[in-house]
Design brief:
Strand content: 15-25%
Number of strands: 13
Distance between the termini: 25 Å
Number of helices: 17
Oligomer: single chain
Helix content: 40-55%
């Protein structure tokens, strides 16, 4: 027996909300800038709109086809798969164009004194059962300390402390062919965007991050600082970022890397031991001005800020900052905004179907799908920005935005039918209302016991 929907307008509300976002932030124009044009069949805008809505409707292309739902694809998946596998669409250009519009809107809601930043981090794109996915490789998962099958997804994002927006990404494969399970499955045209993406997938992550930062500078993303964790904090990488036009703030790990003070090289531990610490309950323990040096022996001034480790008060954590005009408190506060990219990773994996929605085997398809997931997150971010409750998380917002329609219980259906039947009999006959109610009671008593008990229980309540 099919359940009866209580609110048939729910789906339309979700569709209108997503369409409003697409219109307000010119998603169609962004697709045109990314070289996504209609060649035949459905338009790219209608397909992207349909794919974005799927997760909010708790549905999929497969379920739509089974239920006979009329959608943008109307039973034909070829248009969707053509878009996902297209080599000519530059999905990073698409994301930059959308995010730039959203950034302009977000900045109009905040103070000009608020510091914004670009964040660099990576996460595991896990495909454990795939064998024929292009450039699929053996990658090391730093969380579980194991090698797994998939990609290292390198992301670039923008944050102001409350809002995070994904800017660009690249699914990184191994540069060693021995660690790759599958190579290119189709002939590659080196002039296409897909070919460039595959070339970037097999080079070093810092080089790809620098290319994305150059794109962020070209598009005019409003930020002056770049945040990253200890995996990216290296003097050469920091100085390359400064050459692009950004300052860096990164966490340092205890290694053999030397930092120069008064012409003498010191490690982090040696520098901490020889310097005088601050007393009392200060936000930081120590601040030291140092010089860093790259492989070409070029130098640059920077500051190292030591703070107490919350997990173990006997230990410390060090941050490197190239912006000498920032105070130590501002350095700590600004680096704290890096955590928003971790929230982004969790939301995409647990709620927005980052890895499990499509099982395509082309590299272009997983790139396109990741862009769709990023747009879904941006929609949630915009909705969160509109809300007053600052404590609401993206997970709560997702369930609020996609809360399934509650179904009417069987006893409620019986109650509604009897109520409408009572009104109908009173309207077309000359019987008194009390007589009609007695007639309905007699009807209920004549029903099978399991239906009668449910109906009487509902009537009593």
């Amino acid at each position: 027996m099919r359940s009866i929907s209580e609110n048939m307008a729910f789906e339309q509300e979700v569709i209108l909300s997503v369409k409003s976002f697409f219109k307000r932030f010119s998603v169609g124009r962004a697709l045109s800038q990314a070289n996504a044009y209609k060649r035949k069949g459905f338009s790219p805008l209608s397909i992207v709109l349909y794919l974005v809505q799927l997760v909010f409707m708790h549905s999929s292309m497969y379920r739509d086809s089974l239920n006979g739902e009329k959608s943008v694809i109307e039973g034909s998946r070829d248009a969707v798969y053509r878009l996902l596998r297209s080599r000519h669409i530059n999905w990073n250009t698409f994301l930059f164009a959308v995010v730039l519009k959203v950034c302009t809107w977000v900045n109009s809601l905040t103070s000009e004194d608020r510091l914004t930043a670009i964040i660099i981090d990576d996460t595991l794109f896990h495909r454990p059962f795939s064998k024929k996915l292009e450039l699929l490789s053996r990658v090391f998962d730093h969380t579980d300390r194991k090698y797994k099958r998939g990609f290292r997804s390198l992301f670039l994002g923008w944050a102001d402390g409350f809002t995070f927006l994904p800017l660009a990404f690249r699914h990184m494969s191994s540069n060693d062919k021995k660690n790759r399970y599958c190579e290119n499955r189709r002939p590659t045209d080196n002039r296409t965007c897909g070919a460039w993406a595959k070339k970037e997938a097999v080079i070093k992550s810092p080089d790809v991050a620098l290319r994305m930062l150059k794109d962020a500078k070209k598009y005019g993303i409003p930020a002056q600082h770049v945040l990253f964790d200890s995996w990216f904090t290296h003097p050469t990488f920091v100085m390359d970022i400064y050459g692009i036009g950004f300052h860096s703030i990164g966490r340092l790990k205890q290694s053999k890397t030397r930092y120069w003070v008064d012409g003498q090289p010191y490690t982090l531990k040696e520098l901490y031991g020889r310097s005088k610490k601050r007393r009392g309950k200060s936000k930081y323990l120590l601040s030291v001005k140092v010089s860093i040096q790259n492989s070409e022996e070029e130098t640059m001034d920077a500051r190292i800020v030591y703070v107490r480790d919350r997990a173990n008060k006997k230990k410390w954590i060090a941050f490197l900052c190239t912006d000498m005009e920032l105070s130590e408190e501002q350095v700590i506060e600004l680096y704290g905004k890096r955590w928003s990219i971790e929230v982004f990773f969790k939301t995409c994996k647990y709620y927005l179907k980052f890895t499990g929605e499509f099982q395509q085997i082309s590299y272009e398809a997983i790139t396109a799908h990741t862009s769709i997931v990023a747009i879904r997150y941006i929609i949630l971010t915009v909705e969160q920005r509109k809300k007053v409750d600052l404590r609401r998380s993206h997970g709560d917002l997702f369930y609020l935005f996609t809360d399934e329609v509650k179904d009417i219980k069987f006893c409620e259906v019986i109650s509604i039918l009897i109520s409408e039947l009572t009104k109908l009999i009173c309207g077309i006959t000359r019987l008194d209302e009390n007589e009609v109610l007695k007639l309905m009671d007699a009807f209920l008593l004549s029903l099978p016991p399991h239906i009668r008990d449910l109906a009487l229980k509902k009537k009593a309540s």
